[in-house]
Specification:
Layout lengths: L1 E9 L2 E7 L4 E6 L5 H11 L16 E8 L3 H9 L7 E8 L5 E5 L2 E3 L1 H8 L3 E4 L10 H12 L4 H45 L5 H13 L1 H16 L5 H14 L7 H28 L4 H21 L4 H67 L6 E12 L2 E10 L7 E2 H4 L2 H15 L7 E5 L7 H14 L4 E5 L3 H4 L4 E10 L2 E8 L2 H13 L5 H11 L1
Parallel strand pairs: 3-13, 3-14, 8-12, 12-13
Antiparallel strand pairs: 1-2, 1-4, 4-5, 5-6, 6-7, 9-10, 10-11, 14-15
Helix pairs in contact: 4-11, 4-13, 5-11, 6-10, 7-9, 8-9, 11-13, 13-14, 16-17
Function: May be involved in recombinational repair of damaged DNA.
GO biological process, one term: SOS response
InterPro entries: DNA_recomb/repair_RecN, P-loop_NTPase, RecF/RecN/SMC_N
Length: 548
């Protein structure tokens, strides 16, 4: 519920504070006095875009604040989800700087406009004159019926429908990719077959290069190794024999000098190491053999490897094997696509079957709700001066969509002709206003929306019809806060709180002001609405009767 609205420096409002009642609040005033300006300011804290041109004083910022109370748990959930303070009161503030920059706050925490707009849906339903066009909107018509039907399956259906769309999207992407992949499959398979037949092992080409070096220089390697081995062990005075003699000589003087034993020990270690080296040289020499046939084989294998290096733009066997693995993956993926597509197709069929099952339940709930809705709307239409008007709900099955399988149309017949047509196409402006009031009065009882605001819902009506609109608004105000801008005295007479909007001039500037009328002021203003600026005694008595 909107408790207080504070407006500063907006349009022709300098500073204004309005405290609203929790029931039927009526706002009246002369045309152009600024009644709709109040709603324009209110729309700012409900998430509408800000226009810097609305500043009353171009050098100061505009400030609009609304103080709300709420009982709806969804508001608390929203505040928690967006990390906003949950307090007894909800204070929403909007500021527009002189430079045109807009800022919004909820309980003094900055928020963006989309958050503000989302929050307002739990607080206020703002109906302005042009909103009657929504009656012709298919989405609005479905929302009306669903608000009354409350189909239990709808939430589960919508979750499944999102899964269904995701599976459809994945199927299409996979199907399209298969067409592209199939075009590349033959070439990739040819490349893979080449590499598979070549059957290169890890580091094979690098190892072959090393082997070729050995084979190509086998004679030189063998001669060098033989010469070194001969010098170490088989020469006239082999190096190893000389080392052994030297080590023995050192041993003879080891007892004469404290450092000699250590040198002798090192000489012994050197002798042992050279013996090992001689053995390794002999072994390596035995392994090295010139093999012309093997050289030819290695050259052929390396030539093949380098051809593949050049073809695939790589420099190592490891990179070539990575390309082979990638090709295997591509070929395997294409070959498995048909299986994946078949699985997705099966998944789509299962989801669609479940969706159709749920959609049937949703249709049943809507159909059940449609008949009492028609009856109540038609009763209310008669009450507001349209006794010959009839409304009918047409529910037709179609393709699955985000809300089921139904196409819902509100059809209207103004003259009991049984010639029903879409309401948005055949109803006049005045008729649309009254139809919208009747529809919203029914929906409001099924939706947790504390505040409903009507801007001149009485357009195109007067007399008894206006009186009945007032009766409907009064009835709605038993469970909802209603704020209504009106020109009709019959509606103003039903108010629990009557606010009068007027202009005054000060310092060469025209300002809009609002005041809550006393009982006698109400009677006087309603009488003026009935008979003019100087109301007659009869008008005053009539006004007094309306207020009673």
């Amino acid at each position: 519920m909107l408790q207080r609205l504070i407006i500063k420096n907006y349009a022709i409002i300098d500073h204004l504070e309005v405290d609203f009642s929790g029931n039927l609040n009526v706002i009246t005033g002369e045309t152009g006095a600024g009644k709709s300006i109040l709603l324009g300011a209110l729309s700012l804290i409900l998430g509408e875009r800000a226009d810097p041109g609305v500043l009353f004083n171009k050098e100061e910022k505009c400030y609009v604040e609304g103080v709300f109370t709420f009982k709806d748990r969804q508001v608390s959930v929203f505040l928690n989800e967006h990390e906003l303070d949950v307090e007894d009161q909800l204070i929403i503030r909007r500021e527009i700087s002189a430079a045109g920059k807009s800022r919004a706050f909820v309980n003094d925490t900055p928020v963006n406009i989309s958050q503000l707009s989302a929050l307002s849906q739990y607080l206020v339903d703002l109906h302005q004159q042009f909103d009657t066009l929504e009656l012709g909107n298919a989405e609005f018509q479905r929302e009306v019926i669903d608000a009354l039907a409350k189909p239990a399956e709808l939430q589960q259906y919508q979750q499944l429908f999102q899964q269904y769309l995701q599976v459809q999207k994945k199927y299409k992407e996979l199907f399209d990719s298969r067409d592209v992949a199939n075009k590349e499959l033959d070439y990739n398979k040819f490349l893979l077959d080449e590499l598979t037949e070549a059957d290169f092992k890890e580091n094979e080409i690098e190892d072959l290069d090393n082997e070729l070096q050995v084979l190509s220089h086998a004679e030189e390697i063998k001669n060098t190794l033989s010469r070194v081995y001969f010098q170490l062990k088989e020469d006239e005075q082999p190096i190893l024999q000389q080392l052994k003699q030297m080590q023995s000589s050192l041993q003879t003087i080891a007892s004469y000098h404290k450092d000699v034993p250590a040198v002798a020990e090192r000489m012994q270690s050197l002798y042992i190491e050279l013996q090992d080296i001689a053995g390794d040289i002999d072994r390596i020499s035995d392994q090295v053999q010139f093999d012309g046939a093997r050289i030819e084989q290695v050259n052929e294998r390396m030539a093949m490897g380098y051809r593949f290096f050049k073809k695939h733009g790589v420099q190592t066997t490891a990179e070539l094997l990575e390309i082979k693995a990638a090709l295997e993956q591509k070929v395997s993926s294409v070959l498995n696509l048909d299986e994946e597509l078949a699985a997705l197709e099966q998944q789509q069929a299962e989801l669609k079957s479940r969706l159709q099952e749920l959609a049937t339940g949703i249709t049943a709930a809507r159909t059940t709700a449609a008949q009492p809705f028609e009856k109540k709307v038609n009763e209310l239409l008669a009450q507001v001066g349209m006794p010959n008007a009839r409304m009918k709900v047409d529910i037709a099955s179609g393709e699955l969509n985000a809300y089921g399988q139904d196409t819902i149309d509100l059809l209207f017949d103004a003259n009991k002709s049984n010639q029903f047509a879409p309401v948005g196409k055949v109803a006049s402006g005045g008729e649309l206003s009254r139809i919208m009031l009747c529809v919203k009065s029914l929906v409001a009882k099924s939706v947790h929306l504390p505040t409903l605001i009507f801007d001149e819902i009485d357009t195109g009506i007067s007399g008894e019809a206006a009186k009945q609109v007032g009766v409907i608004l009064k009835d709605l105000a038993r469970e909802h806060q209603i704020i209504c801008i009106t020109h009709q005295p019959q509606i103003a007479g039903k108010a629990d709180a009557h606010y009068f909007v007027y202009k005054d001039a000060a310092a060469d500037k025209v300002r809009t002001s609002v005041r809550l009328l006393t009982l006698e002021e109400r009677i006087s203003k309603i009488a003026q609405m009935l008979s003019g600026e100087k109301p007659t005694a009869a008008a005053l008595e009539n006004a007094r009767e309306m207020v009673r």
